[in-house]
Design goal:
Layout (H helix, E strand, L loop, with lengths): L41 H22 L6 H19 L11 H4 L13 H5 L7 H4 L2 H14 L4 E10 L2 E12 L2 E14 L2 E14 L7 E16 L2 E17 L5 E18 L2 E15 L10 E10 L5 H30 L5 E6 L11 E10 L5 E2 L2 E9 L2 E3 L5 E2 L2 E6 L7 E10 L2 E10 L3 E8 L2 E7 L5 E9 L7 E10 L5 E12 L2 E17 L2 E15 L2 E4 L9 E6 L12
Antiparallel strand pairs: 1-2, 2-3, 3-4, 4-5, 5-6, 6-7, 7-8, 8-9, 10-11, 11-12, 11-16, 13-15, 13-17, 14-16, 17-18, 19-20, 19-27, 20-21, 21-22, 22-23, 23-24, 24-25, 25-26, 25-27
Helix pairs in contact: 1-7, 2-6, 6-7
């Protein structure tokens, strides 16, 4: 048989419940660094999710016939929210019954936006809003922040006893190829006499965090919560499944300009006992689309949402409550997550900025470099078309044009200071529908690239002026470990300016008193840039010949030295001149 919905739910509508028709978006926000408002007021979005989640939980408990368990479930979920907060941020665990403004300290505004008064004053009876819906953006944010900081994968788990019940939580996120996949799960159990309580929920996040070549973003947020109370041989349970699909468009200024949100929700109840089973259900969904974004305005949604299936005794008030709360939760979650995604792709994680020529070409005081700025996707390696600029950040002497975005390949001139010890720092920026690329380069008049490293009892030294490419001479001297002889050798190679690779030859002697062995060796040498002041040298020997007392023989296996690190030399390292080795 089909179980009627409790009529008591009509009283819930006396609360301030946003209706579908009233979904007009959030208040305008403080502008970001470009002087343009961001897409959402994050604090208001958090408040929407908190309020909506509270209503959904009340509905879930009423439908499940377990309203008496509300206090215990709320206490357990409040503790779970504290654990989520501690696992995903440095924020302190929230106080009991915080306001929405306090709750937004963990789900912080992406551009440090100022919360609106309405959001700041809105009461919230439990941080994270009962059902833990805010786990979705919290886990997504943790994954995005880790990816931006070079930590693409993260895990966290904990188990503890709280409020008379057991709590177990797991979080996992992985970022690869521009996509974030994250999930979390929580299980809470409690028992008293012959009664037992189980609450569990699972979240799953799939996001394209770096816009595609056409500026599109997509993703989905999945949430599933289940409650069950067993008492006196009767099992009462309820479940809520929520799916939010996201699609957004990014413009040439790297801003989200339109959003389409799809939502699906299903609420189920069942009661099983000696007298049989009953059930009730609500299914609903809809699609909401923002109109195009205009400067000075915020997103405002239009769309349609409604009940698709419902138990025959479900009231219109219950149906309205379900869709209104579900819609506000979907819009709020989508806003929070897309806000963080926008911050991610505007923060330099999706585009590499390339500057040619770079600091290596700066060889003389007062020299001017005619530079070209281009971009490359960190996801697929494709060239990114957009607009780029350069701006002097520190030191001297000038960049022209300065801080003016121009179509790629953008051309600028960097002129260094006239003093030999002068330095300069330039900030390069590329803006496109695939995000923003950021690069800071330091310019200093280095005397040379210097090698001074020891390995296996032998010291390798070199001083190279005039850039990384061209002719190199490396000397090595010492007493090889376990050998006892005195080694002296010269390694020469000529590096190609494009790949910084070339053939090497070595001539060396190994002396044991008056006995001297002569050796010649061939192979490959290559350099790899680590940063503007550091490169790595790799020597790969291929063959050799040893001569002693007039007899020549092919050398056996040649042991390559480890990769060696070179640094920019300062102060007179090339006193003999700037060209050659």
């Amino acid at each position: 048989m089909t179980r009627p919905f409790p009529r008591a739910l009509a009283a819930i509508l006396a609360l301030t419940v946003p209706t579908v028709a009233g979904l007009t978006g959030c208040a305008p926000t403080a502008p970001d660094a470009d002087g343009r408002p961001g897409p959402v007021d994050a604090a208001a979005a958090v408040a929407d999710v908190i309020e909506s989640s509270g209503l959904l939980q009340q509905l879930l408990l009423e439908v499940g016939g377990i309203p008496d368990a509300a206090d215990q479930i709320t206490a357990l979920t409040h503790r779970n929210d504290e654990l989520v907060a501690s696992a995903t941020s440095d924020a302190q665990p929230p106080e009991d019954a915080p306001t929405a403004a306090a709750a937004s300290a963990t789900i912080e505004p992406a551009f440090a936006r100022t919360p609106g008064n309405a959001a700041a004053d809105a009461p919230a009876s439990a941080f994270g809003a009962y059902l833990g819906l805010l786990q979705l953006p919290a886990v997504a944010r943790e994954g995005l922040e880790g990816a931006a900081n070079g930590e693409p994968e993260a895990d966290a788990s904990t188990t503890e006893t709280a409020e008379g019940g057991e709590l177990a939580m797991q979080l996992h996120s992985r970022y690869a190829d521009g996509r974030l996949n994250a999930e979390s799960s929580s299980r809470m159990t409690a028992a008293s006499g012959d009664a037992s309580l189980l609450v569990s929920w699972d979240t799953k996040i799939e996001l394209l965090a770096c816009p595609a070549s056409d500026g599109t973003l997509s993703g989905s947020l999945t949430f599933d919560v289940q409650t069950s109370v067993t008492s006196g041989g009767v099992v009462r349970g309820a479940s809520l499944d929520v799916l939010v699909s996201l699609a957004a468009q990014v413009d040439d200024d790297a801003h989200v300009t339109s959003i389409t949100l799809g939502m699906e929700g299903a609420l189920r109840e069942s009661t099983t006992g000696s007298e049989g089973s009953t059930s009730a259900y609500l299914d609903g969904g809809g699609t909401f689309t923002s109109r195009s974004f205009a400067p000075g305005e915020d997103f405002r949604y239009t769309g349609d949402g409604g009940i698709r299936r419902a138990s025959q005794h479900a009231t219109s008030a219950q149906k309205e409550l379900f869709i209104a709360a579900l819609t506000d939760a979907a819009v709020g979650l989508g806003a929070i997550v897309l806000d963080d995604v926008e911050r991610f792709f505007r923060g330099g994680s999706c585009i590499d900025v390339l500057v040619t020529p770079g600091p290596d070409a700066y060889q003389d005081a007062g020299q001017s470099l005619e530079q070209e700025i281009t971009g490359r996707s960190t996801v697929d390696g494709e060239e990114v078309e957009g607009r780029a600029s350069a701006e002097l950040q520190d030191g001297g002497a000038s960049v022209s044009p300065s801080a003016e975005l121009a179509p790629t390949p953008a051309r600028v001139r960097y002129t260094g200071p006239s003093e030999s010890d002068g330095t300069g720092s330039v900030h390069y920026r590329l803006v496109s529908r695939r995000g923003i690329g950021l690069l800071d380069l330091d310019y200093a008049l280095a005397d040379a690239w210097v090698l001074d490293q020891s390995w296996d009892g032998v010291r390798y030294t070199a001083t190279k002026c005039g850039g990384l490419d061209g002719e190199w001479t490396v000397t090595r001297k010492g007493t090889p470990s376990g050998n006892g002889g005195s080694l002296s050798g010269t390694i020469t190679f000529d590096l190609d300016p494009v790949g910084l690779i070339g053939y090497l030859t070595e001539s060396s002697t190994l002396s044991f008193g008056s006995d001297v062995m002569h050796g010649t060796w061939t192979g490959m040498a290559s350099l790899e840039r680590i940063d503007d002041a550091t490169v790595e040298l790799e020597l790969d020997y291929e063959s050799g010949t040893v001569e002693y007392d007039g007899i020549s023989a092919s050398a056996g296996e040649v042991l390559d030295p480890p990769i060696m690190v070179l640094h920019r030399g300062q102060g007179g390292a090339c006193a003999a001149g700037r060209s050659g080795a």
